[in-house]
Amino acid sequence: MEPSLESSSPLLLQSLWDRIRAQEDFLCSPLFPVLFSLTLYLSCCLPYLCLDTLSSRVDLVHHYKIQPQSRVTWVMAWSCLATSLHTHSVFIFPLSILHWYWRPVVLPAQAPGALHVAWYVLVCLLLFDLQYFVWHVLHHKVPWLYRTFHKVHHRYTATFALTTEHSGVWETLSLGLFAAVNPDLLGCHPLTKMLFFTLNTPTKNDCLNGTTELKKWTECMSEDPTVKATMYPNETYKAFNKGYFEWKSSFYCCL
Predict the structure, then answer these.
(1) Do the Cβ atoms of 49 and 163 come closer than 8 Å?
(2) Nearest CA to 172 among 97, 103, 89?
(3) Which domain holds residue 190?
(4) Rounded to two decimals, what is the model's pTM?
């Protein structure tokens, strides 16, 4: 049962909210959502990019790479960054202007209660995770969706942080829509929305940059018939498959 959210005192967050509201003109401008999104995304990617740079020099870092045999080049990194910058400037910024014109942001004077924030941030994270899971499965299982929209996300077989948003316009905007609409549907306070976006961005990035289980998942995706049929000609795929899995045959399975 949902906790008594309104009874949680807003005083804990009021000081923080007052400082944020002091920048109200900027927060309500159409430029803020674009800069906020890009700043969060690049800040989350930077530590992983540093680790990729160190991995060729530090054995301890190299040992924990998902793909020890792969090498991330600056050309690959710049290509992903350019795609993200282009999408934000050409598509997201104009949409932000339209939203600013039709539904201007209003910042209430009172901060939400701490329990209110914690509850709705958790709900938004779980809801977005469910939506992303269903969306992703559909784009891998429906050949037309994969070929038309999702294929660009798998352009680089080497896993690195900037590939998390290396995707087509449809993919970026649809996932952005999920993230933006959920807090509105739940009637979240603007501070709750900001904290949700702040936590959601590193969560998305981290899911593509860790753990042994991710290795198994990545290999399963590479074995997906739709992926093989739309990404690789037969001979190319055989060469990729051999080079990719020879380093760790114990992971060559699908759970």
Answers:
(1) no
(2) 89
(3) 11-246
(4) 0.72
